[in-house]
Protein: Cyclase family protein
Amino acid sequence: MTLDRTDPEGSIARTAKACSNWGRWGADDVLGTLNFLDEAKRREGAALIRRGVSFSLSQRFDIDGPQKGWRRRTNPVHTMLDTGTDAALGNQGLPHGIGGADDVIAMPLQCSTQWDGLGHIFDHGKAWNGRPAEQVVTSDGDLITGIEHMAPHVAGRGVLLDVGRVVGEGGELPDGFAITEEDLAATAEAHGVRVGRGDIVLVRTGQLARVRRDGWGDYAGGPAPGLSFSTAGWLHGSKIAAIATDTWGFEVRPNEFEHAFQPLHQVAIPHIGLLIGEMWDLDALAEDCAADGEYAFWLTAAPLPITGAVGSPVNPIAVK
Structure:
């Protein structure tokens, strides 16, 4: 795909038409590309468990996270409702010496490791499958494609593409690096792994490792390596079920067009119906994959079934 950097509107329109999955699974579909992740793919993924070693791919959810208020997103605020102090002082009103602790958390659903739901992005007022956006997401939430529908389905064969290690220097890609289809193919070949129908693909850029070393900076909302807009055809044609990266926005930042904002999102979510994960911690998994040479594994990454939500925190677990 040749990018005309001066014409985001035209490029998005042409790519959306070429990559559209509207109607592919019927007019009432609420799963998008998760339809590719079927029972056979889950059995294939489960068969990859050999050693039983597991990795959490989630960042921590705490006040020391990366958020700085971009798009009104904040870090989680954790508050105790009952504590050991209350129990010791006998303030809880419970019999026979029993005491306990309870807590609450307040946070945007996309402030750390998360999935973008199908109601998260629109194109010219159209949501996934061509539905009018105003009929899908209202002040009551996502009335049709709420992320709760995906909760039973996100488990199967995971594949790590450590582009930072294969293409980058020192295991990291610089901010602004646009990952092309050729980069993805070269990485898969270097790892000796295939990517195809129903896979959950994880793309490591190395940016998270860098900000942990150097400080958060503009990690949440700033420049980043990521997928090129030109990969839209690959995302569509490969029939993957989902994709996640270790960056805040999945696609390269700054974007490749003049006066554009997240053009790949504008195609991938409302037109391809692709489930997108962001801010995943892939570093420990990547080290293990490099050590044993196995880049495919069982992966379970269910969103919280929050009714009507357009995104969800997640604690993905990879098992090898």
In short: The two ends are 36 Å apart (CA to CA). Residues 8-19 form the longest helix (12 residues). The chain has a mean pLDDT of 97.
